[in-house]
């Protein structure tokens, strides 16, 4: 089947922000006396608060998880959000897909506020057909909810007509649970082994490399 829509993750995929989220989480954890090395935190990036915090603090109650997520969000907004920049050619990749008639969807575990900021930062509002954020669903990645919500907004398309582009194993796992293939990028700092074990159909260095190979990539099946 031809690919009619592409669901793009944002953090680590279109925006160089994963390491900044690590720093914000490190500060948030320190605020309650919890300390983890940065690699341990990085290995959880790509999940929303509801999945990330219990992975590292399994005994923390629901209210504690919520408060920690709010602390992370405030720290990230105040200290790091303005430092997050698009990867080279990220808008060009979205424009290319749009120009081929493929629907461009942003599907992220980030908050709605962060997603709106990134839409403006990328200057792609006119290219994006739909968006879903962590605020739209009960569970974030690697649960399938975010991509399932995106599919619900594309009622004329089946899972085999859609593909995900992400940078973490959690993007790939969430896509797989929806029956959607996923292309992974190394730009988020995860190993090829981790991405392949999660089920990635192909791996590229970053959005620029994917754009350069677009026609031969899994995204390039436009005519069927």
Q: Could you characterize what this model shows?
A:
- 43% of the residues lie in helices and 14% in strands.
- The mean pLDDT is 95.
- It has 2 domains: 5-16 and 85-220, 3-Layer(aba) Sandwich (Rossmann fold); 18-83, Orthogonal Bundle (DNA polymerase, domain 1), CATH 1.10.150.
- It has helices at 18-30, 38-42, 49-56, 62-80, 90-99, 112-122, 145-152, 169-177, 192-198, 207-212, and strands at residues 5-8, 15-16, 85-86, 103-107, 128-132, 162-166, 181-185, 202-204.
- The strands form 2 sheets. The chain has a 6-stranded parallel beta sheet. A two-stranded antiparallel ribbon has the order 2-3.
- It is globular, with a radius of gyration of 17 Å.
- By secondary structure, the protein is α/β, with parallel strands linked by helices.
- α3 (49-56) crosses α4 (62-80).
- α9 links the parallel β7 and β8.
């Amino acid at each position: 089947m031809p690919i009619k829509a592409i669901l793009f993750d944002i953090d680590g995929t279109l925006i160089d922000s994963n390491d900044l989220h690590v720093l914000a989480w490190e500060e948030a954890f320190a605020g309650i006396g919890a300390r983890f090395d940065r690699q341990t935190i990085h290995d959880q990036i790509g999940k929303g608060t509801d999945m990330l915090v219990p992975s590292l603090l399994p005994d923390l109650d629901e209210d504690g998880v919520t408060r920690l997520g709010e602390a992370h969000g405030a720290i990230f907004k105040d200290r790091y959000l303005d430092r997050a920049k698009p990867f080279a050619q990220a808008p060009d990749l979205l424009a290319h897909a749009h120009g081929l008639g493929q629907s461009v969807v942003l599907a992220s575990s980030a908050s709605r506020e962060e997603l709106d900021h990134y839409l403006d930062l990328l200057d792609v509002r006119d290219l994006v057909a739909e968006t879903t954020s962590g605020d739209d669903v009960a569970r974030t990645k690697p649960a399938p909810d975010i991509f399932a919500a995106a599919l619900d907004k594309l009622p004329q398309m089946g899972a085999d007509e859609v593909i995900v582009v992400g940078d973490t194993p959690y993007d790939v796992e969430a896509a797989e649970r929806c029956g959607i293939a996923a292309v992974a990028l190394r730009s988020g700092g995860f190993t090829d082994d981790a991405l392949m074990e999660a089920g990635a159909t192909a791996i590229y260095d970053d959005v620029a490399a994917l754009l350069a190979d677009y026609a031969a990539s899994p995204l390039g099946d436009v005519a069927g």
